[in-house]
Amino acid sequence: MPQRPKRLSLSILLVLGLPVFTLSAQESTIGRDVDRSPIALAVSSDGKRILVANQTAGSVSLIDTAQSKVIREQPTGDRPISVALSRDGRTGVVAHWFGSDLAVLDLTDDQLQIKARIEVGPEPRGVVLMPDGSTAFVSIGVANEVVRVDLATRKVTGRVAVGREPRGIALTPDQSKLVVGNSRGQSISVIDLTRFAVDRTLPMQADNLRQVAVSPDGKTAYVAAMNNRGRATTVNNIDLGWVLGQRIERVRIDGSEPVENLTLDPRGDAAGDAHGLAIGDGGKLLAVSNGGTHDIMLFRDGKSGLPWAEGVGRDLMPANLVQDKTRYRRIMVTGRPTELAFAPDGITLYVANYLANAVQVINTATGVITRTIDLGGPETPSLARQGEALFHDAFRSSNHWYSCNTCHSEGHTGGLDFDTLNDGWQDRSANHLRSRKKAPTLRRVAQTGPWTWHGWQDDLDDAMVESFTKSMQGNKPAPAEVKALVAYLGTLEFPKNPYREPDGSLTPAAKRGETLFRSKKANCASCHGGAELSDGKIHDVGLNEDGDVYKGHNPPSLRGVYDKDPYLHDGRAKTLRDALTGDHAPESLGGAPISAQELDDLIAYLKSL
Ligand code: HEC
Ligand code: HEC
Fold it and tell me: How many other C-beta atoms lie within 10 A of the C-beta of residue 482?
């Protein structure tokens, strides 16, 4: 990976705390040939500038909209994930997904300098800035909270607990409330800013919540999402919308009406990986980006309205909407469109396009891409980048309903279970729960064979073929495609562990837990041994289902286990504590009962892995 040494040198500088001018001197080190991968963007209130977060390059780019070009770029940290601007356009913030911090940028005279860097917590996701630039709010994915950051004192001044893995975050126009989408929590949290406390939690039958937007009247919030319907991945189920489907969820911020949703999947022509969402034309136009099907959908709430539905929603987009050009339009943009933002005119739409290394400009009145603003990137994609494109390509599944990324969110897990027919059978009972399996993380997956929960798969290349033909019901991949995909999987790593001491060592509790883990008493290491904390063998730990074709399970690697919830092959244990006091207690695995203190220590150790 060409960008690797550069990212390393940047992080060394950051660790050393070298002053700002040193960082500016780094600017030239981001070569033209480095993928930028824009993941988020913010438009200034006068519409003259766009600040873009470049995930792969670890930088932000500043675009001059009149010239449609990048006028400055600044390395900022490890995997930028979101950006925001103050109303006067002089202050910007960028949150770093792997860097766990928020960088504050001075944009006066377009200088784009880092003024401060504030630790906010593990895996920040979304950020908003008060219009006066005084305070930022960041959703923290692993800690399940929103933090308040005072930019003047550069301190975190408050934390509020929300649902599991908060991501998208938006401020109401009157600045009184925050709306937060809990990506793995099937809910939206509404935070009151005077009290800095949760006003209400609005549950919804939706998963993979992404960008959130609030209507100009401040009454309604929308979020791009997916709905896991739970049926096995047969072509028939897929086409009926019974495996999973894409949605826009709509909530009344005051909770006065039920949560509703709009189905984004036309029959036989589905949407893949709904990600970005923005509101234009004074609240009448909804724009959503589909990363997997490489398109933008525009919906206009005209005279006849839109077919909003409650609960799981409609299986398919109604045909009369699909055909109604006054209410619905679909624009192919290629690549992987992620976040969206409207210009102040409410008509010009900006699209961060990750795989295209560009920001695209769409005239929503005509549906035409008027400009493509190049952010920089290699002429020809690397092998891993080709694999990354395949991984995010819903066109590889039957009628392009979903991509690998839909189930293995960003190469990790969204905590959801699916019946991918991988294990040779399909539970046809009403809830078809018995043959469903949690989608495992793919971080370090090449090191953790054999694969699948039952561990019957001992060839990663074959596993790829199974994924394309069974999980996706798509065409068999060419050998070169398998190679590219495996190269991409090789780039997936765990973020820095947040449960260790700052120097990376174990806490005293984790040290005690480690001793116990390796002892005869708890007996964990007899199956979870070795560098990856799995012996690579198959064990019957009492979790076989009646219909299972393959018996026993392969101990999963415990690395990064703090973020792999829910636990066990069907996600039956919500927490590590549930697993170790329930179906995976030491006394049922050849160990002896442990005390409450020992359990705490053991969990502290597991979290540190
Ligand atoms: C519909 C959801 C879904 C899709 C789409 C999907 N997977 Fe999976 N994947 C799963 C589930 C569920 C499992 C566990 C299956 C089992 O254990 O029987 C799994 C298992 C795997 C494994 C084995 C991991 C391990 O540690 O054992 C790999 C590798 C994998 N998937 C890669 C991919 C790739 C690459 C794609 C795209 C070509 C893909 N998957 C598409 C749900 C999905
Ligand atoms: C006899 C072998 C064996 C022993 C002993 C054992 N495990 Fe496991 N472990 C497994 C298997 C197999 C699974 C997967 C089971 C399943 O999901 O159906 C598993 C799953 C887990 C999981 C869930 C991981 C995930 O990603 O969902 C955790 C956590 C875990 N083990 C921790 C422990 C701890 C802690 C101990 C010691 C108290 C222990 N295990 C002892 C074999 C074992």
Answer: 21
